[in-house]
Amino acid sequence: MTPLPDTYRHQGQRRALARELRQRGIHDERVLAAISTVPRHLFFEPAFEAHAYQDKAFPIGEGQTISQPYTVAFQTQLLGVQPGHRVLEVGTGSGYQCAVLLQLTPHVDSIEFNSTLYARTRGRLAALGAGGAQLYCGDGSVGLPARAPFDGILVTAGAPGLPPALLRQLQIGGRLVIPVGDNQTQRMVRVTREGPESFVREEFEEFRFVPLLGASGWRTS
User: Which of 55, 145, 169, 180 is the most exposed place for a label (fewest CB within 10 A)?
Assistant: First the structure.
């Protein structure tokens, strides 16, 4: 695929979006810089490009959405990614959140349940020069045990509870950021692994996500 151009107008829209997110409470300068850098319009179909820098979610097909920029920034800020951290993203989707994470660390693994989205996003990230992530197609609710442990795990779909496999795949000191709740609304949760069997759970504001599918998510049948 041939990427759309990234113009001065788009760059100005990203800076304006970052200012809006700062006003809403996003204070991590590295996260704001990533939002200002990643061209979100390139993750949209050309016909919907005008919506790219509005602070709202937008459908991307296959019953999935590209998350609202505030949601992306909020989750990324909670994760506290540092250079050199190894991060697992559960739910690649459009690839936008993955591209934001790659601005913070080159060590990103991302797993997508939907094979159509996986194939589409793999090509898109490669075309945009953001192919540094290791992408997988499979059940993200059980993580990637062969690649564990991770310093951070970020889940971009709503789960009915905390997936045990993801907790086990955290490094000591690592963080899991995941929306937990029913199919209507979820509470954003951050779990920090403080020891082999010691976890600290924090809860934040409510969000609305598409459901996390899989063995430790919502069943597909």
Answer: 145
Among the listed residues 83, 105, 103, 125, the one whose alpha carbon sits nearest the alpha carbon of residue 32 = 103
What is the edge-to-edge ordering of all strands in the sheet holding 198-207?
Answer: 134-137, 107-112, 86-90, 150-155, 170-181, 186-195, 198-207
Amino acid at 147: R
Instruction: Return d(Cα 181, Cα 136) in angstroms, integer.
Output: 26
Grouping H, G, I as helix, E, B as strand and the rest as coil, residue 61 is: strand
Looking at 67, 94, 110, 216, which residue is catalytic?
67
Q: Give this prediction's pTM.
A: 0.93
Radius of gyration of the chain from its Cα atoms, rounded to whole angstroms: 16
> Which residues have CB under 8 Å from 205's CB, separation 6+?
74, 187, 188
Residue that has been written with the tokens 């059980």 in this structure: 142
Residue 192 — φ and ψ, nearest 5°?
-110, 130
Residue 67 annotated as catalytic: yes
